[in-house]
Amino acid sequence: MKMKIAVLSGDGIGPEVTKESVKVLEGIAEAFGHDFQFTEALVGAIAIDKTGNPLPEETLNLCKESDAVLFGAIGDPKYDNNPDAKVRPEQGLLKLRKELGLFANIRPITAYDSLLDKSPLKREIIQGTDMVIYRELTGGIYFGEKKLSEDGKVASDLCEYSQFEIERIAHLAFKTAQQRKRKVTLVDKANVLESSRLWRRVVTELAKQYPDIALDFLFVDNAAMQMILNPSQFDVILTENMFGDIISDEGSVIGGSIGLLASASVGSGTALFEPIHGSYPQAAGKNIANPIASILSAAMLLEQFSLHDEARLINKAVEILLNENIGTIDLNKENPSSTSEIGDVIVKLIDSQEVSIGG
Ligand code: IPM
Ligand code: MN
């Protein structure tokens, strides 16, 4: 298969981890005879430094004409503590999501058996966790009208959703549930928010088209608690933009490290694949960051193009590596591997297993 992949590695540890997922995709291309063409482009703080724009036109055009986008991380401390900054790195990612119509962000959360004791949560609580969060990504409070009064003393962000926006992601969530444990949990705040009540009405109505799926509802505050009290009760979680942002970081605790969590953002155009972690500037340039989230995002990219054997091979290689207790410092404090070593081990494992799967 021939594929054009835009590589937007961004800020902080983004370039280091993305380099490893490109390495892994190159390994896959070689093993399976694919032709993956990688083109790099600027995004985020580094794009602001070089062009004044967190999402230069050139980058956006490249993404639009590519088959997929491999995204690294975005953000820089020099903007975080400056509420008056006019341009921010995050605007690059938000604009990209909007422009590419990436309305659904898919974030799987699994408790690997070999990592059960790495999580601060008890092993008996997290064992067997296998859920996926469907987070709406181009609506809600992130994109509603923002206001700041003239005197700078009052601010507001509008949270708005339409039936159409809710339906299109809900269909994806229900279809995924049909391939999994056949349960969808809608997470909202319908006891307080009108927009949440719309979600409930629309999702309840739509669920009639999926009689094989059990639908239940949780208020987000309770959901946040349930996710760490009894995470194995969940299959597919469907939620709006901001709640999804928050509970997916919370969910990363289950897996033992946020450095493991991958995501796919899909919608009407080119799909985008990115780790859920941020730019982790403290680790940038040190070759210590965990590249697995980025590598698993590359596996989700392959899955999106129905390259199932290829994706499975990466997932299996990651599992083997974790079983052997090979990991960056977040997972293995006594004997940490470097970022690039992890990529190398995975490529090696892919090479050795390719024969057994039959290419
Ligand atoms: C994420 C990130 C982004 C978000 C930031 C960087 C804008 O936290 O992808 O979860 O809030 O969506
Ligand atoms: Mn986030």
Strands, helices and their partners?
Blueprint: E1 2-10, H1 14-32, E2 35-40, H2 45-51, H3 57-65, E3 68-73, H4 77-80, H5 89-99, E4 104-110, H6 123-126, E5 130-136, E6 146-148, E7 155-157, H7 163-179, E8 183-188, H8 194-207, E9 214-219, H9 220-229, E10 236-239, H10 241-255, E11 262-266, E12 271-275, H11 292-304, H12 308-323, H13 339-357
Parallel strand pairs: 1-2, 1-3, 3-12, 5-10, 8-9, 8-10
Antiparallel strand pairs: 4-5, 4-11, 6-7, 11-12
The chain binds 3-isopropylmalic acid and manganese (II) ion (MN).
The tally of beta strands, per DSSP, is: 12
Please state the CA-atom Rg, rounded to the nearest Å.
Answer: 20 Å
In DSSP terms (H or I, runs of 4 or more residues), the helix count works out at: 13
The CATH topology of the largest domain is: Isopropylmalate Dehydrogenase
Q: What percentage of the residues does DSSP assign to strands (E)?
A: 15-25%
Task: Give the name of the CATH architecture of the largest domain.
Answer: 3-Layer(aba) Sandwich
N/C terminus separation = 13 Å
Can you offer a commentary on this structure?
It contains 13 helices and twelve strands. The chain is an alpha/beta fold and 359 residues long. The chain folds into two domains: 191 residues, 3-Layer(aba) Sandwich (Isopropylmalate Dehydrogenase), CATH 3.40.718.10; 153 residues, Isopropylmalate Dehydrogenase (3-Layer(aba) Sandwich). Strands 2-1-3-12-11-4-5-10-8-9 form a ten-stranded mixed sheet, sandwiched between helices. A two-stranded antiparallel ribbon has the order 6-7. Helix 1 links the parallel strand 1 and strand 2. The longest helix has 19 residues. The model has no long low-confidence stretch (mean pLDDT 96). The structure holds 3-isopropylmalic acid and manganese (II) ion. Manganese (II) ion binds next to helix 10. It is an enzyme of class 1 (oxidoreductase). This is 3-isopropylmalate dehydrogenase. It catalyses: (2R,3S)-3-isopropylmalate + NAD(+) = 4-methyl-2-oxopentanoate + CO2 + NADH. Homodimer.
